Amino acid sequence: MLLRNLDVSAQLCNGTRLVVLSIKADKKLLKCRNLSNGEPANITRMHLDYCNEKSGIAFRRLQFPIRLAFCLTVNKSQGQTFDKVGVILRTPSFAHGSTYVALSRCTTKEGLKVTRNWAKVPSLPKTRNVVYEEIL
Predict the structure, then answer these.
(1) Which among 6, 93, 121, 131 is least buried, having the fewest CB atoms inside 10 angstroms?
(2) What stretches pass through the bilayer (predicted)?
C-alpha cells in the first residue's frame, strides 16, 4: 500500500494498493502494478521525515513509500470493490454506516466472509449497525 500521494492523475495516492513485481538490482526502483487501474507503476525511494513527539527525536530515512498490507480498514476500503472480502467484526461498528461500507465492498455474496469472536457468542452472531438518525 502506498503511503504518500505521488501522482494523483496516475492514481498513485495515499492508500493505493500495489503489487510489487520486481526490485531493480540497485534497489532504487520498484516495478509495481496498480490494483486500482491495472497500470504499471515505478516507485522510487524518497526521504521520509519522522519525529517522536514524546522523546523529541527526529530523523530522516531514505525508503520506498510503501507498506506491506494484508488487510485494509473500512475507511481505506471506501470507494473500492473487491472480488473477495473478509470482514472481521471484533467489536460493534464504530461509526455511522461503517458496517454497510464494509459489507458492500464485495462484488458477490459468495466472495464475502464475515467473522467475529465466536467463542464469546452463545447465540446467533450479531453486530450493531450504528445509525445516527439526527444526521439523516
Answers:
(1) 121
(2) none
Cell of 59: 530523523
- 60 and 48 Cβ atoms separated by less than 8 Å: yes
Instruction: Give pTM, 2 decimals.
Output: 0.63
pLDDT tens digit string along 35-59? Answer: 888 999 999 999 988 888 888 899 9
Cell numbers describing residue 65: 513509500
Query: What are the residues facing 33 on neighbouring strands?
Result: 19, 40
Measured between alpha carbons, how far is residue 93 from residues 58, 119, 129 in Å? 36, 19, 6
* C-alpha 60, offset from chain centre: 25
